[in-house]
Specification:
246 residues, 12 helices, disordered N terminus, mainly alpha
């Protein structure tokens, strides 16, 4: 069993590095595509498609803003109960209806609402399987401070990484002694880049052949690559600690 765990860790770290390289490669590819879209003859060939998107934009602009607000907040509540809808879809939907500053505020509000529900769930019913699994390791328990106030900066790092389930993280920290305002502040700090970028994508989604639409996607892939390298570094640090403790 020990030999399996030793070989498993290098494989995970290699997979993380490969995934990070893929994310950075996609970001570079999007930069090239963005440049191609700026060429005059390409702009001319895309004129009919852009006109079609303009008609959709006029249709979306006719939506009742208050109705849209309640629908979007309802989607966040729905996601807190059944996590089947990706955050990106909700963020983009909000950006399609509202200007960027308002969309960012609404998305941040909806996200904090969902996190609060999951956090209180963790307070009442425990941290779930992830909390139990992490609690089996003394090192993880000590590092994340699961029996105390919770590791605040680790919370920010996990929220920064796109592949960590929000509900699971919120519920796990709800089972610690961390206060809700503290949890929401550090969570929002980690989520803020994604909230900003996806909201901006939504605002410009009906202009897909522009720099304004492509730039946030490029940033999102760079964030994903950085978060994967960050996780790889954390795994490497924990491995070094284990070896020095031996």
């Amino acid at each position: 069993m020990k030999s399996n765990s030793k070989t498993e860790s290098p494989k995970k770290r290699k997979a993380l590095k490969i995934s990070a390289v893929v994310c950075f490669s996609v970001a570079v590819a999007l930069v090239v595509v963005t440049y191609v879209f700026t060429l005059p003859y390409v702009q001319k060939s895309l004129l009919d498609i852009n006109n079609w998107f303009t008609q959709i934009e006029l249709y979306v602009a006719s939506f009742n803003r208050w109705s849209a607000l309640f629908i979007i907040l309802g989607l966040f509540l729905f996601k807190s109960l059944l996590p089947v809808l990706p955050f990106s879809v909700i963020f983009i939907s909000c950006g399609m209806v509202f200007p960027t500053p308002i969309a960012v505020c609404i998305n941040a509000l909806g996200l904090m609402l969902m996190c609060s529900i999951k956090f209180h769930w963790g307070e009442k019913r425990g941290g779930g399987k992830a909390h139990k699994l992490a609690g089996k390791s003394r090192r993880v328990t000590r590092f994340m401070d699961l029996k105390g106030d919770g590791n605040k900066w680790m919370l920010t790092v996990m929220c920064f990484m796109p592949f960590f389930p929000v509900g699971t993280v919120s519920r796990m920290y709800g089972a610690t002694e961390m206060k809700l305002p503290t949890f929401l502040c550090y969570s929002l700090l980690g989520f803020l880049p994604r909230v900003l970028m996806w909201s901006y994508v939504g605002v410009n989604i009906l202009n897909p052949f522009t720099t304004e639409f492509m730039a946030p996607l490029i940033v999102l892939f760079i964030i994903s690559g950085i978060s994967l390298l960050l996780l790889d570094a954390l795994l490497g640090t924990s491995k070094i600690r284990k070896e020095t403790e031996k």
